[in-house]
Write a structure and sequence with these properties.
Helices cover 34% and strands 17% of the residues. It contains 9 helices and 14 strands. Strands 2-10-9-8-5-3-4 form a 7-stranded mixed sheet. The longest helix has 22 residues. The structure holds pyridoxal-5'-phosphate. Pyridoxal-5'-phosphate binds next to loops.
């Protein structure tokens, strides 16, 4: 079965490690001798409570989270936090700052405006989203109560090479397409959130890591499933959570710890990214529009200098078992998403294919 799996370079839902899928397949119908699939187990039974507790413990271990941070799992994806953040962190009439670096900050900005004011402190529209800013306290508006950034811009393929250190207000980071891929200092953040479908597990699940002093500060009426305090207090079991997705996330966390944790995967991720960017820079057919310092280690965006070859390139890639290389519908070109689960061998195969394609044309 697993021999037939291909390399999926899609941006998400993305491929998951074969080792994880093998365990999930083996346990699919009969989880730990219960005669039930995990998805058939009540979220109130010890069998599942154990899964969600372990998932949090493993995530805490991976990120070296202290007691001053809470973790909660949500159903509803990363987008849910675009609504949840202002409601949880701001009183009516207050505003937040945002550094606009791509489509996901635009969406957070638009959603934020429904509830509060938004101060755009950096706008990468002028450079066509090919770079990320160096942000310090000096960039803050002075009015915003927190700063929202997208640390890795999935669609444009740009990433903050160094994450900002902001002291005057809490830093809130959408890390959907990079969480667990490189070492971060959680203490630099007020809230980190991520949709699961890149480095964590199935889509529809998201998680948030919230500094405890930020819980309950808005005093607003918040829809219950968006209320960070309620979710934390109930250990993500206020209602029926996405049980099967949380189970897969737990398996992914176990896999990552077994590999040696974030330090180990970061090395592989750098190797993968260097391999592909170095090749692109040396080629006369391919080019990467993103500034070198901000090139994403997760989403490699590239173009063919001869656009007439675009569909041929995609067709031949598919025939070679290299799937999902088309760029985002709003941007075009190509994108190789090389999240934690993409093995080095997948990137080596892609680069060999690209070389051969260039040689032939
Ligand atoms: N933020 C980033 C950086 C993303 O890449 C995505 C989706 O790919 C989202 C937010 C939205 O996630 P979701 O579809 O889970 O709401």
């Amino acid at each position: 079965l697993f021999q037939e799996r291909i390399y999926n370079f899609g941006a998400g839902p993305a491929m998951l490690p074969n080792e994880v899928m093998e365990i999930a397949a083996a346990e699919f119908l009969n989880y730990k001798g219960s005669g039930m699939s995990v998805m058939e187990v009540s979220h109130r039974e010890p069998l599942f409570e154990d899964v969600i507790k372990k998932a949090e413990i493993l995530l805490r271990e991976l990120l070296d989270l202290g007691d001053d941070y809470s973790v909660a799992f949500f159903s509803g994806g990363a987008t849910l936090h675009f609504s949840a953040l202002p409601l949880n962190l701001l009183k009516e009439g207050e505003s937040f700052d945002i550094a606009h670096t791509g489509i996901w900050t635009k969406k957070a900005w638009e959603e934020g405006l429904k509830f509060n004011g938004v101060n755009v402190i950096h706008d990468a529209t002028e450079n066509h989203f090919t770079d990320t800013p160096v942000l310090t306290d000096a960039n803050l508006s002075g009015k915003g109560k927190y700063l929202h950034i997208t640390s890795n811009n999935t669609i444009y393929g740009s990433q903050y090479p160094e994450l900002p250190k902001i002291k005057q207000v809490p830093l809130v980071a959408d890390m959907t397409s990079e969480l667990l891929s490189r070492k971060i200092n959680v203490k630099d953040f007020g809230v980190i959130f991520a949709g699961a479908q890149k480095n964590i597990g199935p889509s529809g699940l998201s998680l948030a890591i919230i500094r405890n002093d930020l819980l309950g500060i808005s005093g607003r009426k918040i829809p219950v499933l968006l209320d960070y305090s309620v979710m934390v207090k109930n250990q993500s079991l206020y209602n029926t959570p996405s049980t099967y997705s949380i189970y897969i996330a737990k398996l992914v966390f176990e896999w990552l710890l077994k590999l040696g944790g974030i330090e180990a995967i970061e090395k592989v991720n750098e190797q993968k990214a260097n391999l592909i960017y170095d090749f692109i820079d040396s080629s006369s057919l391919y080019m990467c529009p993103v500034q070198k310092r901000s090139r994403s280690k997760m989403n490699v965006v590239f173009l063919l200098k001869d656009k007439n070859l675009d569909s041929k390139f995609l067709d031949e890639a598919e025939k070679n078992g290299l799937h999902g290389l088309g760029g985002h519908r709003l941007v075009g070109g190509f994108r190789a998403s090389i999240y934690n689960s993409m093995p080095l061998a997948g990137v080596q195969k892609l680069v060999s294919f690209m070389k051969e394609f260039e040689f032939k044309t």
